[in-house]
Write a sequence for this structure.
C-alpha cells in the first residue's frame, strides 16, 4: 500500500488515499482508478491515472472507462 497525496479535481482540496498494484489493471499505463473524495461535503468521484510505480500521472473529473476499483480518500494520516 502506497500513500498518495494529491488534490481533488472537483474542490481542489488536498486528498489522501492508499493504493496498491491490485487496485489497477496492469495491461497498460497510465492506468485509471476511481477516487471518491469522502469528506461529507464533496463526495465526488473522479478518475486518477497512475503509472507502473503508482505515481499519479493526471486526474480528471470524468468517470473514464477501464478502472477496476473505487477507492475512498482517507483522513489526513
Ligand atoms: Zn473534492
Amino acid at each position: 500500500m502506497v500513500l498518495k497525496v494529491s488534490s481533488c479535481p472537483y474542490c481542489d482540496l488536498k486528498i489522501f488515499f492508499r493504493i496498491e498494484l491490485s487496485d489497477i489493471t496492469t495491461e497498460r499505463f497510465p492506468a485509471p482508478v476511481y477516487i471518491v473524495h469522502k469528506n461529507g461535503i464533496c463526495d465526488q468521484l473522479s478518475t486518477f491515472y497512475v503509472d507502473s510505480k503508482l505515481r499519479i500521472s493526471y486526474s480528471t473529473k470524468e468517470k473514464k472507462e477501464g478502472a477496476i476499483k473505487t477507492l475512498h480518500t482517507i483522513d489526513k494520516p
Summary: Strands lie at 2-7, 14-19, 31-36, 45-50, 56-60, 70-72. The chain has a mean pLDDT of 97.
